[in-house]
Specification:
By secondary structure, the chain is mainly alpha-helical. It has helices spanning 8-23, 28-44, 48-55, 66-78, 82-95, 100-152. The protein has a domain at 8-114: Tetratricopeptide repeat domain (Serine Threonine Protein Phosphatase 5, Tetratricopeptide repeat), CATH 1.25.40. 79% of the residues lie in helices and 0% in strands.
Length: 153
């Protein structure tokens, strides 16, 4: 019987976890770093849910690691969860207020959200115009039918 193959990164992550349990908080940042690397790898492969699951425990408050906040924000943005991404980039900006990339990402979020609202309004307006056009055409046909029936009598 063959033994199940375990990916090298899983073995490495397990070793880090064991070391963290033995040594305490000194290894915690190493474990977090490994988790972020694994999450980034998952995100690059399009496995966004997996990346979210890895990163979510690292996001506890605005004092969370900036790289974890940024990566999870990017994962959310890739999935179209713009408001969630915006919230995380705001938290990251609290930790690193001069970070131009976070500032630009927030600006992009604002633009996307405003376009989204504008797009929704245009879609509603278009549907309203189509509905009004249909009502006008039906009314015109009814009026024409009434006129034709009166003209023949």
């Amino acid at each position: 019987m063959c033994a199940k193959r375990v990916p090298a990164m899983d073995i490495f992550a397990a070793d880090i976890r064991r070391k963290t349990l033995r040594e305490g908080s000194n290894s915690l940042s190493l474990l977090e770093s490994v988790t972020i690397v694994l999450a980034a790898s998952s995100a690059r492969k399009g496995r966004f849910k997996e990346a979210e699951d890895l990163l979510s425990p690292l996001i506890v408050d605005s004092g969370s690691r900036t790289d974890a906040l940024d990566l999870l924000a990017k994962v959310y943005a890739q999935q179209g969860k713009i408001e969630e991404a915006q919230h995380l980039w705001q938290q990251a900006l609290i930790n690193d207020p001069d970070n131009r990339l976070f500032q630009e990402a927030l600006q992009d979020c604002k633009e996307i959200l405003s376009r989204g609202h504008t797009l929704i309004m245009w879609q509603i307006l278009r549907r309203l115009v189509i509905a009004c056009s249909i009502v006008f055409i039906v009314s015109a046909l009814i009026a024409l039918t009434i006129y034709m029936s009166m003209a023949t009598n």
